Structures are given as C-alpha cells and as structure tokens.
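User: Sequence in, structure out. Go.
Assistant: Echoing your sequence, followed by the structure tokens.
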Amino acid sequence: MANALLIAKWTEKINRVETVLSGYFESIDRVSDLGGTGQLPLDFHFDLIVATDSLEIKPDGDFLACLRGQFPGAKFLYLADEIAPETEMSLRSGGLIYLGSYDHFISCAHQILGSVADSVKKR
C-alpha cells in the first residue's frame, strides 16, 4: 500500500493538492500542527512526504534531516508560493524530488508523482 503524508493546514490549495495525491496514493495522512510534540505518526511508513509553506515554519536542512531520520524511505516534496534563495538552496541540498509552486505541482502532477508511484510498485 502506498502512503503519503501531507504537512499542511487546510486551505483550498491544500485541498487541491490532496485531491491530486489521492489519485496516486491509497492513504493520505495530513498533519496540520508541528508545534510542541507535533502530530507526526511515527509508527507509520510513508512513501511520500509533502511539506508546504502553509504551516509558516522555516523549512531548512534541519527540518528535512529530522523528517529523513523519522521516515528514511520516503521521498520529499516542498510546495510554496514564494521561496527565499537561501531557503531554496537549503531544501534542494536536502534531496527533494520537487520544490515549487502549488499550481505547477497540480498541473504537472503526473510527471512528478509518476516516478514516485512507479518506485513504490517495484518494492
């Protein structure tokens, strides 16, 4: 079973992203608060983790390293309306398979998610 984790607060854009993901993943969990102890379901396996700028946290190398440590087999995407150059460099060096806007992700989902879905099927 292919599983995805969406780290985002509910917005109309996030709802569209979740709809796109549902075409590729059997299960999609959404976490909308990483404050305090957080809500990450640590006892679960995810094939894809999609983090977004909707949580208003600073995405950096530490953020990605923490996620990689908790979910080592997952592939990572980051969606944002705007990304500062230093944030982009930090995220790209963390091994994201996609970094870009919501609209571009939604319009190119087949190309972006097709490879993730194929790699999950081969396991």
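User: And one key feature?
Assistant: The chain has one domain: 3-121.
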